[in-house]
Amino acid sequence: MSAYLDHAATGPMRPEAVEAMLPFFTDRFANPSGAHRWARDARRAIDEARDELAELLGADPGDIIYTSGGTEADNLAVFGATRSTSREPGRAQPGLVVCSAIEHHAVLDPVEHLGGRVVGVDPLGRIDLDQLADVLRSETELAEAAEGPGVRLVSVMTINNEIGTLQPIDRIAKLVRRHAPDALLHTDAVQAFCWTDIAHITRNADLV
What we know:
Layout (H helix, E strand, L loop, with lengths): L14 H11 L11 H21 L12 H14 L12 E5 L4 H9 L3 E3 L9 H16 L6 E5 L13 H11 L4 E3 L11 H4 L7
Helix pairs in contact: 3-4, 5-6
């Protein structure tokens, strides 16, 4: 007899989700960008789902962006935020991105690709807040002296996908606001969504 113990990575779709999606695999299949009534029906369903997600996240419906999954969402947050400072179309001027050493590779790999800073964690996987403050402070000072790009994004996951560590997002947000006020705070909350009050625990993050 065997037992599947990797549900934090992936698992079977819940029956309620299967039931909700079946009509869109069969009868309600239209392109939501069209003008005909079948398309309008599909668009209505997407907008209703966006409204429900916004309520769960404590966000505005207009702030909800659909992606194919967590990896694409993390990549979009890291690359999008750091390159949004570009002054000329097609020419990125990325700011510095900072993350914890225990992030999912969907964050760690882009951070390393962009030459960002990785902050250590303690034996329980909690980010070293003193080290984070030092990194933010030093990089902000370098930027003010025109010797560095400045911190554009700080990314710390809400709950770790392997050991379940819950990070102190509120305390991290305070450090970011104090030492790098121009930076955005991103948190990968994939593992937190089903188990916490997601709107409350991520309320001080800019990107979730």
